[in-house]
Design brief:
Layout (H helix, E strand, L loop, with lengths): L7 H13 L6 E5 L2 E6 L6 E8 L5 E6 L5 E8 L1 H11 L1 H4 L4
Antiparallel strand pairs: 1-2, 2-3, 3-4, 4-5
């Protein structure tokens, strides 16, 4: 089954959540069935995390390693729950790297 598309409002939802939790340096963008969270200049962006849409209501979390490659986590949940777990369990992945 093909991945379900991500809508623009998902990016806004992710970005607003992160900004509300003190991560104003991050931005979110849509890429296929994922929302990528990054910082820095757009031409040379630093990847932090991405959320991938798995089903209509469930999302998966991946964290970028020091080389910018995606590493899967064990987390699979509705988007708001996943974002809450991200902020609680992986704040180091969201920290400014500039």
């Amino acid at each position: 089954m093909p991945a379900r598309p991500v809508e623009t409002y998902h990016c806004s939802q992710v970005e607003d959540f992160l900004h509300d939790h003190g991560f104003a340096h991050l931005r979110a963008r849509k890429y296929g069935s994922t929302v990528i969270v990054e910082s820095g200049p757009k031409r040379d962006a630093i990847k932090h995390v991405r959320v991938r849409r798995d089903t209509v209501h469930l999302w998966l979390l991946d964290v970028a390693n020091h080389r910018g490659k995606w590493e899967r986590t064990h987390l699979r949940a509705p988007l708001n729950e996943l974002l809450g777990e991200l902020v609680e369990s992986f704040p180091w992945a969201l920290a400014s790297r500039e």
